């Protein structure tokens, strides 16, 4: 037990702490506090801070240990809260969520506009008798529209700058949609209005069911691109051969049924390409014009083949 609480044990002549203790010699002056203006020369730290209390700048080529050299940094391996190891901000996955959802909304908005224009042309050519008569008297317009369709389709399919650069892509898509709608209107005017309405209703139901199936199913149809291409080539050859065969009702029904089935699978394939996510292949979000064009072509082909089936069955 200490004999004198104010005196360090072992040295009754000196106070606490002993010489060589804390603070070190040359440290704080008597009184316990450094003088105004910072530490004295030779104080703590040795050769220490200049007057004013600021640390001297690091020498060229010197990188202080610990946190970053400029301002407050982070130690090696430190990951801020809410940021993943790959540097992506958690809760803002723009690659597969926000951008993909916006892309799907844009594609379906464009597709709905295309279908509305097409439906207006069909109704005009089917239900307005003077327009139907005028079109049948000017058949050359059909061939002009057919050439415009192929030119716009080739331009958008083969030229990346055409389908990705606005407003050029919308101009080409608008011209293509108008020309294709004209062709569908002329083709529909040959059939009875009841058959056209039935084909529109059946096509709507089929496309809606197929779209819901494509969004919900766990099967990945994006890997079937090669199979669908082979089926399309065989189908085209079958159509070329059927041109030279005698016109037969059974042959027409078989050909139209196969066409409707083929483009139903194409609709699933193109829908899943647009969805991305868990599917193996996906289309770039910059290709919204191309995605809308694919879906539009699938739907109108399904409509044409269903209309052919209805028309052949009623003959």
TrEMBL record:
Region (Disordered): 1-55
Pfam hit, one: Bax1-I
The organism's place on the tree of life at top rank: Eukaryota
Main location: membrane
Start-end of Low complexity biased regions: 8-19, 25-38
Keyword Transcription regulation: no
Membrane topology: Multi-pass membrane protein
Similarity section: Belongs to the BI1 family.
Name the record gives this protein: Protein lifeguard 1
Lineage, highest ranks first: Eukaryota, Metazoa, Ecdysozoa, Arthropoda, Hexapoda
């Amino acid at each position: 037990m200490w004999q004198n609480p104010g005196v360090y044990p072992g040295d009754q002549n000196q106070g606490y702490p002993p010489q060589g203790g804390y603070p070190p010699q040359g440290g704080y002056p008597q009184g316990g506090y450094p003088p105004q203006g910072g530490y004295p020369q030779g104080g703590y730290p040795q050769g220490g801070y200049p007057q004013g209390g600021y640390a001297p700048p690091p020498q060229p080529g010197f990188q202080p240990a610990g946190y970053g050299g400029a301002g407050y940094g982070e130690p090696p391996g430190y990951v801020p809260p809410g940021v993943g190891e790959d540097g992506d901000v958690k809760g803002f996955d723009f690659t597969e969520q926000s951008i993909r959802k916006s892309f799907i909304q844009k594609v379906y908005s464009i597709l709905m506009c295309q279908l509305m224009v097409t439906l207006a042309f069909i109704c005009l050519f089917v239900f307005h008798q003077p327009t139907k008569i005028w079109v049948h008297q000017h058949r050359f317009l059909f061939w002009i529209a057919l050439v415009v369709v192929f030119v716009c389709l080739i331009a958008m399919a083969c030229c990346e700058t055409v389908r990705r650069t606005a407003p050029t892509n919308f101009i080409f898509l608008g011209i293509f949609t108008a020309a294709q709608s004209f062709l569908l209107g002329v083709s529909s005017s040959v059939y009875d209005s009841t058959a056209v309405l039935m084909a529109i209703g059946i096509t709507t139901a089929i496309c809606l069911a197929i779209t819901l199936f494509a969004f919900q199913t766990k099967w990945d149809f994006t890997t079937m691109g090669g199979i669908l291409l082979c089926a399309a080539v065989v189908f085209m050859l079958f159509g070329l051969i059927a041109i030279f065969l005698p016109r037969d009702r059974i042959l027409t029904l078989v050909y139209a049924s196969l066409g409707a089935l083929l483009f139903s699978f194409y609709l699933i394939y193109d829908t899943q390409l647009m969805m991305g996510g868990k599917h193996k292949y996906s289309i770039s979000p910059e290709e919204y014009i191309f995605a809308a064009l694919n879906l539009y072509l699938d739907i109108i082909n399904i409509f044409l083949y269903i209309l052919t089936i209805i028309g052949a069955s009623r003959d």
